[in-house]
Amino acid sequence: MHNLDDIDAKILHLLQQDATLKTRELSEKLNLSYTPVYERVRRLEKEGIIKKYVALVDREKVGKKLMAFCNIALKEHSKVMGEKFVKAVSAMSEVMECFNISGDYDFLLKVVVDDMSQYQQFLMQKLGSLENIGSTHSLFVMGEIKNSSVLEMLTPKK
Prior knowledge:
Layout: H1 6-17, H2 23-30, H3 34-46, E1 66-74, H4 79-90, E2 95-100, E3 107-113, H5 116-126, E4 133-140
Antiparallel strand pairs: 1-3, 1-4, 2-3
């Protein structure tokens, strides 16, 4: 774990709220001079604490109306077969997130597509073509209650 002080936490909190903030704007909000803020941000990037900057797109406004969570159980749990599955799923544009989980299933996929017909095609043609899938179980999102990319543990002390 990296040693983050209160200023680092404040920088991270501000950038999680708005990644377009320029160093000058950050320094004004933090009441610090430009150079130390610039150096801290670069250090946070270099250490991999800030992984990348992205634009969050409203999926429904671009026609991606269906979100599903798909549980996957593998038939075989060898390293080679697991790596083949991970490589294949990572290349599927419909899969937004993939988690290796414990319990009755091995993986949990977050899948976003236009509609149910496209999900069926994804399930049958893409997932169905993978040789090591034992079973799948799909859950469909009826409403999105909370969707946040802000790590609350980084909320600065007031």
